Amino acid sequence: MSTYRLKNLLSPHSLALVGASPRQGSVGRAILANIRKTQFKGEFGLVNSRYAEIDGVATVDSLGKLPFVPELVVMTAPAAAIPALIDDAGQRGAAGAVIITSGLGHGAGSLAEAAERAAHKYGMRLIGPNCLGIMMPGANLNASFAAHMPRAGNLALISQSGAIATGMVEWAAQRAVGFSGIVSIGDQLDVDIADLLDYFAMDGKTRAILLYVEAIKDARKFMSAARAAARIKPVVVVKSGRMAQGAKAAATHTGALAGSDAVYDAAFRRAGILRVSDLRELFDCAETLGRVEQPSGKRLAILTNGGGIGVLAVDRLAELGGIPAAITPATREKLDAVLPPTWSGSNPVDIVGDADPARYAAALEVLLADAGNDAILVVNVQTAIAPAGDIAAAVTGLVGKYRQQHRGFAKPVLAVWVGADQNIIELLSGAGIPNYPTEDDAVRGFMYLVRHREVVTELAQVPPAMPSEFAPDTVAARGIVGAALADGRQWLDPLEIKRLLEAYEIAMVPTFAAADAGQAVAHASVLFAQGATVVLKIMSRDIVHKSDVGGVVLNLTNADAVRAATTDILARAKALRPEARISGVIVQAMMVRPKARELILGLADDPTFGTIIVFGHGGTAVEIINDKALALPPLDLPLARDLIERTRVSRLLRAYRDVPAVEPDAVAMVLVKLAQMAADIPEIRELDINPLLADQAGALAVDARVAVGQAERKFAGSGPANFAVRPYPSQWQRHLEVRDGWRVFVRPLRPEDEPVIHELLRHVTSQDLRLRFFASMKEFSHEFIARLTQLDYARAMAFVALDEATHEVVGVVRLHSDSIYENGEYAILLRSDLKGRGLGWALMQLIIEYAKSEGLKVVSGEVLAENTVMLAMCRKLGFEVKADPAEHRICNVKLTL
C-alpha cells in the first residue's frame, strides 16, 4: 500500500538516463530520443562512461558528476551493473529508478536481490526491472522505448506487459484517447500493481484505471488497494491465462472446482473491478470511460436509420442486463412532430433510411431532453442519400451544445457509424463522443459505465447484522482439528466432521462409526427404532471418494441387510484398494427429502489468494455439471446471497410447480458459517459438504470431507494468515469500566453500523461536530457514513463504544494508516452529553494499543487550537503538540510508539 515517493518517479523535476547508446536500434538510444522528443521540462543528464556525447547531448561518466541531483534515474545498463548504479543513485539522493534492463534474475543471491537491497538502504523506489518504462504525458515525460507518446488524457494504464502497453498507445493514437499515465511494471521488484492503484486512485487527473495482469504477487495488498480504488473510479482489468487449470490434483470436489482463473475472477468481483476478456474489450472500455461520465441508470435509447441494427443493439443490451428505454406518450408526441409517419414509434427509434442531418438532430434533441432514458446510442448506416460525415457533424454539434448547457449533468451519448472513414472517427473522437465499429461494442461500452455505477452502489450497501444467536464453539472446533494434526492425520474422520460442523451450528445427519458388521447392526437398530432407513459408507482415511469403490449402500431397512452390506463394502474396498487403511463403515440415517436440492459448499486453498469458498450444484456428477461460483471470505449475508445467485442451481432454490422454496437464507447462512470457520481455524486446508440437502425445512449436510494441515502464513500482518481480505477483527472486542463504574462495550466498527453512527451524530452538538470535522456539518449522507463504516481492516480501524446498560452508541475512535504503514492518523468523537466521564481517555488508549500491535511507528492527528480539552488529553498521553506552520488555527499532535 505504498505511494511513498511515487510522485517523484512519475512526475520528477529532474532526470538522468544511464546506459544510453549511439547504436541505432538500441533501447538506450530509443529512450533518449523519446525523452528529448517530449521536451521534458526539468533538468536532464546523460550518464555513459564510453562516449563524450550521444546525439549531441553531452554525457558524464558517473551519476556523481551530474551538476544536479536527479529525482529519477532511468537505467538501461547491463544487468551486472544495476546494483552498483542503484547504490550510486541512492548516495546522490535520487528518489527512485526505472530499470529497463532484463536478466537480473530472481530470489536469493540474484542481481535483483542486490538491487533491491541497495534501494532499501536509501529509501529509493524501483519500477521494473524488465519493463518498457513509463509515459506521463502531463509531465512531458516519455522514459520508455515505445514508438509513440500518448496524448494527455484521463486514463491510467498499469501493465505487466510492455507489448500490451505499446499496443494501447498505438490504438489510442488513432482514436484521440489520452492518458494520465502509462506504467509498465515488469518484474515488480518493488513498485507493484497495488502501489500504482493507490497512486492513480488519488490522482485528480485520472478518471479510470486500466490494468493488464498476468499474476498477482501479494493478494492481500492488491485486494486492499483495488477495493479502495474501485470506490472512487472505474478500474478495468484484462488478465491472461484464463484457460489455465489450477486444481487438477485436488483431493476434494471443492478443490477440483476451484480453478486458478475462477479464483482471480472471484477476487476481481470482490474488489469491485470490472473484468474484460480481451484487448478489444479493454479498448472499448478505454473508449467509453475516457470520454463520458457515468449514467444515472441503465436505460438506453437507440437512435438509428437502420431498424435491423437497432434491434441487434436492443438484443445485446437485454443480454447484458441493460434496459431499452421506454418511449413515453409525451416523448412519442414530440418525435411525431419532427419525424416522418414511417418512424418506428418505439425504441429503437428508427428514423428510416433516408434520414438526413436535420432529422437526426431533431430526434436526438428530443431524446436528450427525455428524462425516460439515461444514455443515448446514435447509430448510422451509410446510404447514398445523406452523407454520413454531415450527419456526424450535426450530431457532434448538438452534443457539444447540450454538454455546455448541462455541464456536470450531461447524459452519455455514444455512437456507431458503420463503415465510417477515418475523418468521421476523428470528428466524433474530437468531440469526445465514444464511437465504436459495431453496435455490440457500443452496448458493451455503455454497460461498462452501468456496471461501475452498480459496483459503487454495492460497495456502499449496508449489510444486515449477523443473527445474534450464532455463537460457534471455536474452542471445541480447534480441539478437533488439533487432535487430528497431533495424530499425524490429514483427514478428519466422519465423527470428527460431524462434531466440527455442529460446533458451527451446521446440521448433519445422525452419524455413527462401526468397526465391523456387529457394531453396524447395533447402530442401525437405533435408527430403525426411530423409523429411519439406513445408509452405509466405507470409512477410510485413504478413500476420499467413497462411491469410486462402491463404498456406499442406500436404503437398508433391516439388520440382515445391514450385516450383508457391511461385509460386501469391506470386502470390495479391500479388493479394489488393498493399500488403503480401512477402519470400518459409517452408519447414517437415510434422509428421504424428495423435494430437497443437492448442493455443494466448501473451502479450498488457492496459492495466490488463500482460502476461497465454493458453492454449486452438488452430487456425484459435480465436476461434470460444473455449475459453481467462487468467493473470497469473509462473507456476510449479501455476499453469500450473491455467490448463490451466480449459479444456475440458484433458480431451483425458488419455488416451482409443487416444489416449495428453500427456507430463506438457510443456504446463505451455512456459507457465512463456513467462512467464519475458515477464519477461526486456518488449519482447515480443504472442506466440502456434498451433498447439502436444502428444502423448505432448512439445510442438512449428508456427507462431508475435511482435509487439515499446518496453517501457512500467505499474507503479512495480523488477521487470518490465509485470507486475502482481512476479516472482522473480533479479537479486539473489549469490556471497559471508566469513571464512576460506567461500563461500556467496545468493538471494531462493522458495515452494518451505519444506523448507530447516524444515531450518535444526533447526540453531538454542532460545536463538537465542527471541532471534529473542522467545518460546519449539517447533514450526513449515506455515502458519507458508508465511507466511515465500511472499513478495510488492512488499512484502517475504528472502535465503537456502546453503553452496556442502554446499548446506545456513545463514542467512536478511528485510525487510518499512511501508505507505508508507519504513521496512523487518529480521530475521535463522543456524545456531547457524555463527555468528561473518562471514555475519551479509554478509547485513545485502546487505539494506541491497536497501533502498537499493528507495528505502526507513530500515531498523529490534527486538532483545532481552540479544542483545548483534546490538546490537554494528548499531552497527558505523551503526544508532542506543535502549531501547524501553514495553518495556525490547527495543531499537529504526534505520539512516537
The backbone outline, from C-alpha atoms, is: globular
Roughly how many Å apart are the termini? 21 Å
Strands side by side in the biggest sheet: 31-32-33-34-35-36-38-37
Radius of gyration, CA atoms, in whole angstroms: 32 Å
Structural class category: alpha/beta
How would a textbook summarize the main sheet? 8 strands, mixed
Spans of at least 5 consecutive residues whose pLDDT stays below 50 are 245-251
Strand count: 38
Helix percent reads: 25-40%
Q: How many individual helices? A: 28
User: Which band does the percent of strand residues land in?
Assistant: 15-25%
Mean pLDDT: 90
Describe the model.
This protein is α/β, with parallel strands linked by helices. It is 36% helix and 23% strand. The chain has 28 helices and 38 strands. The strands form six sheets. It has an eight-stranded mixed beta sheet, sandwiched between helices. A seven-stranded mixed beta sheet has the order 3-4-2-1-5-6-7, with helices on both faces. Strand 15, helix 11 (307-319) and strand 16 form a beta-alpha-beta unit. Helix 6 runs parallel beside helix 7 and helix 14 packs parallel to helix 15 (422-430). The longest helix is centred in the middle third of the chain and has 21 residues, at 439-459.
